[in-house]
Every structure is written in C-alpha cells, then in structure tokens.
Amino acid sequence: xxxxxxxxxxxxxxGIQAExxxxxxxxxxxxxxRSIDAGIKRIEVTSFVNPKRVPQMxxxxxxxxxxxxxxxxxxIGLILNMxxxxxxxxxxxxxxxxxxVSTDTFATKNQGMTSVETVDAWNSVGRLAKSEGVxxxxxxxxxxxxxFEGEVPQERVVDIARRVAESEPxxxxxxxxxxCADPGRVGALISKVKEAVPGMPIRVHLHNTRNTGLANAYxxxxxxxxxxxxxxxxxxxxxxxPRATGNIPLEDLIYMFNxxxxxxxxxxxxxxxxxxxxxxxxxxxxxxxxxxxxxxxxVAKAA
Length: 303
Prior knowledge:
Elements: E1 6-9, H1 11-15, H2 25-37, E2 42-48, H3 60-65, E3 74-79, H4 82-91, E4 95-101, H5 104-111, H6 115-132, E5 135-141, H7 154-164, E6 172-176, H8 183-196, E7 202-206, H9 213-222, E8 227-230, H10 250-260, H11 268-282, H12 290-293, H13 298-302
Parallel strand pairs: 1-2, 1-8, 2-3, 3-4, 4-5, 5-6, 6-7, 7-8
Helix pairs in contact: 2-11, 7-8, 8-9, 10-11
C-alpha cells in the first residue's frame, strides 16, 4: 500500500457541469482558490467544450484568465477534440486532459465519434501538444462499464491504453464514468494497464453512483495508482450518461486516507468548509457524509 497519493479536485469542472444552477465566473474562481488554500495541487478548472451542450462551461476562457498566479497548483482543462485543444492552449491552461471512450455508443453520444475515432483524434492532439510543449494527459471514459453497451472487457481498455500511449501522454486516467466499478475490477485493471504501459503515471476518475467509490479508491491505492480524482462535497456527474451521479466526496476520501496513514497533503477541515460553501452556492444538498458526521475523534472530544 502506497503511503501517499495525489488528489485531483474535479469539482469546478465535473462537479458543476450537470448542475441546474450555473455558477458565475467569480464563484468558480473562488471555488478554485479555496481548494488551493486547502492544499490541492492539481485542479480540473473547466472544460473547453461546446457551450450549447454544456452551458455550465461556457465561460472557460474567462475562468482561466481569472485564475490566481504563482500558486504552485496545476490547472487542467478538459478537451474532446482539436478545437478544444486550440482553445485551451490559447487560454493558457497548465495541462489539457483529453477524453477518449471505450465503447462506440457512448463515444458517439459524448463526442460524435466512434471509440476508435476518439483514440485517433487524441493521437493527433497528443502529438501536437508534445511538439508545442503542452502537458497533455488522456482519460479512457467508461473503462469499467458503459451505460449503453454494458460490461466493457478489460482487454479492450488495455488495448486502448497501449494505443493512446503512442503519443506519450503525461498520464493515462481510467474513468468509472457511471460508477459501476468494484474494487476487484479496479485493482485488476490498474495492474494490467501498468503492465501494458510500464512507467506511465496512472490516474483514476471514480464516481460514487452505486456507493462503491471509496472502496474503489482504496483498491486503486493498493494497486499503486498515482492520482485519484474527487470533488468537494461529492458533487458532479456526466451529463451524457443516464443516472450518473456524483464523484467521490473529496472530504470523505481524505478522512479515509488520514485514518489509514496515507498522506494527501490536504487540509480536511478546509475542504469541509469548502463543501458547505459549495452547497450554499448550488442551493441543494451535497452527497458527502463527513460534513454531517464530523471528523473523528474530534466529535468524541466535543461530546
């Protein structure tokens, strides 16, 4: 078991992209600034996608322009195609994260391409990004299951990982886009991908749709993952995946790791406060449990 792991805050992007209330640019930047103050070192700040399909991300350029400078935090912009890359590069994000998809049906609904076409499109972007000195990672969506085609063979995901690695991304992320994974499959797939592309940093993006997110994160750390995505308050979900609910709650994840002795470098009390702030801005309850139950043993001392 690793003794430390880097957490990636995805709330400002994945967390709010399907919310009915659209946060202002200023609110998004405050969300990001508060996360940095809590000790987060990597943040998905926005996505450069079609604003007609995802209106919550329409101000991507404005958000990046307003981000604080010299914080030591790396800001990631999600992209789905070459146009998105060009917008992200022009905006000046620190990293781009490109999404490919493991199945044709989901890929078509999400990006208007087949699965193979998403991989080919990534390789074009990846090679260009490398030549231009832009850090680019790639996420394999629906790595553990598809809402339209069902089970996804792990061999298919491993093959995609080999193909996307040809363009030398800075990392490969395995996404449980609809929250259907289990700890056994998470550990096995990470091990297989690490064997297929040795030396490649591995990241996981786990949703908590079926309440297995924390268990899957445990399995990921046990398998030697480098980065784990989570969102403050557990907000989020893919707008193109039916019934997809939130990410792993960041504060719940930190609590588990703190109790296990796995270092994250993130201030749990500040994240709990951030979650309350987010809940107030969204005007709806958040899924996270820690803000309700409190941090143990602090609650025992206060009793």
